[in-house]
Amino acid sequence: VQTSSGDSLKPQRVMVIGGDGYCGWATALHLSNKGYEVAIVDSLVRRLFDHQLGLDSLTPISSIQNRLQRWKSLTGKSIELYIGDICDFEFLSETFQSFEPDAVVHFGEQRSAPYSMIDRPRAVYTQQNNVIGTLNVLFAIKEFREQCHLVKLGTMGEYGTPNIDIEEGYITITHNGRTDTLPYPKQASSFYHLSKVHDSHNIAFTCKAWGIRATDLNQGVVYGVRTDETAMHEELVNRLDYDGIFGTALNRFCVQAAVGHPLTVYGKGGQTRGYLDIRDTVQCVELAIANPAKPGEFRVFNQFTEHFSVNQLASLVTNAGEKLGLNVKTISVPNPRVEAEEHYYNPKHTKLVELGLKPHLLSDSLLDSLLNFAIQYKDRIDTKQIMPSVSWRKVGVKTKTVTT
Ligand code: NAD
Ligand code: USQ
Q1: Would you say 169 and 350 are in contact if contact means Cβ atoms under 8 Å apart?
Q2: Where are the transmembrane segments (predicted)?
């Protein structure tokens, strides 16, 4: 089969690192459903963080073993499971040699900005886990599967909020009469977001030096919970984080509205980010896999479908909540982060659309279904976990117990 990049690799075997997490679980099932041979690699460390911090997903999630058994009994499709830490190269080498992936989708990182700003140990953990994990994946590809395509989850937050348009990975600059196309400047604003910048640099270097083929998906904030596959059975339900550490903006606002908690707009609320529906996360990853980067190519896609300010999200959730008879209020919370609260934001996002992405734009029906989902699991909401508990300015050198 010819791919758009002109070579004949037809990826069949996909290793999903971080496949027990929010984006990874939905993606693993989607790819399995589409006929790919899928293996999940996960250390389950995310479930451990929840225990350590006293947090829980809005939705009750089954163990990874039960999830996979249920998937098999419903569809007849098997997903292989490798439990282990990709920072352990022995473990990763064995999984590579055993599964022999054609593509690796790498979701397996510590992905919360607030978590990385709790204290020095968590800042160090985040960068160590993310940077070394990705380096190990690069070495495993070089050593065992040279043709394997790396699809790596990056973040729109790598770019920060510059006062010019954001391009997809590269910018052409003319300086003192000479012109070059260079990596777009990175201005991340948490130790987590910075770990993604470091990853991108390591991946770009190994594409050049070793001929690795890689796609960096600079994803915006993901919202929603249901995908076709996770909606098939309650044991396949995805996690939905709403707490102040792992919860993200729109998901949090829907849960807050459902439980009568005022929507927590940080600071002035002009912070604008790219957003996408989780159904588009799985679609984008599938498109990236089906159209692999060429050997030596470091391809960067901006993976989001629309951008909103926090104030716009609050007003959309207020209107949708009122239609359901909820009385939704908003409060301005002193911003726990150090970030621009009013800024220019115009990032490009055409490359995935060119590959065929059909976006699910944020609609009344999605907000309605997410709000109803939150109402359905209302009794599981611990309102003490909603307010932010981590301050960028107060990140401590000593290990902190996080309490709200
Ligand atoms: P998540 O925390 O739900 O899932 C991450 C998974 O990776 C967890 O199951 C965890 O146990 C596993 N993991 C972490 N470190 C590992 C290691 N060293 N070895 C093996 N497994 C490990 O996170 P998510 O929301 O699904 O995010 C997945 C990826 O997508 C992350 O890289 C994140 O940065 C990126 N991303 C997420 C969002 C979002 O809004 N959720 C937006 C943009 C980008
Ligand atoms: N915000 C609020 N109120 C809230 C929560 C967030 O005003 O209750 C604001 C934040 O201050 C920030 C914006 O909303 O300006 C987005 O915050 P977020 O927590 O939704 O997202 P973020 O910390 O950026 O991280 C999430 C994921 C991360 C991913 C990133 C994509 O956790 O893994 O990389 O989204 S992006 O934002 O494009 O970098």
Answers
A1: no
A2: none
Residues 6 or more apart in contact with residue 150 via CB below 8 angstroms = 103, 104, 106, 137, 138, 141, 203, 212, 213, 214, 215
CB 268 within 8 A of CB 387: no
For the CA of 49, the closest atom of ligand 1 is 11
Contact present, 127 and 202 (Cβ < 8 Å): no
Closest ligand to C-alpha of residue 49 is 1
Whether 24 is in the pocket of ligand 2, judged by its Cβ within 6 Å, is no
Q: Please say whether the beta carbons of 252 and 242 come within 8 A.
A: yes
Each residue's pLDDT tens digit, 70-117: 999 999 999 999 999 999 999 999 999 999 999 999 999 999 999 999
Spatial contact of 154 and 198, defined as CB atoms under 8 Å apart = no
**Model ipTM?**
0.99
What local confidence, expressed as pLDDT, does residue 402 receive? 78
274 beta partners? 307
Q: What is the DSSP string of 251-310?
A: HHHHHHHHHTPPEEEETTS--EEEEEEHHHHHHHHHHHHHSPPPTT-EEEEEE-SEEEEH
Residue found by looking up tokens 């055409």 in the block: 350
pLDDT of 6: 46
pLDDT tens-digit map of 180-232: 999 999 999 999 999 999 999 999 999 999 999 999 999 999 999 999 999 99
User: Does this model's pTM top 0.90?
Assistant: yes
CA distance 137 to 41: 12
Q: Is the CB of 87 under 6 A from ligand 1?
A: yes
Q: Which residue puts its alpha carbon closest to atom 1 of ligand 2?
A: 249
3-state SS, residue 244 = coil
The H-or-E segment that residue 321 falls in is helix 310-323
**Long-range contacts at 158-161 (CB < 8 A, ≥ 24 apart):** 158/186, 158/188, 158/193, 158/196, 158/197, 158/200, 158/218, 159/184, 159/185, 159/186, 159/187, 159/218, 159/347, 160/186, 160/187, 160/188, 160/189, 161/187, 161/272, 161/339, 161/340, 161/343, 161/344, 161/345
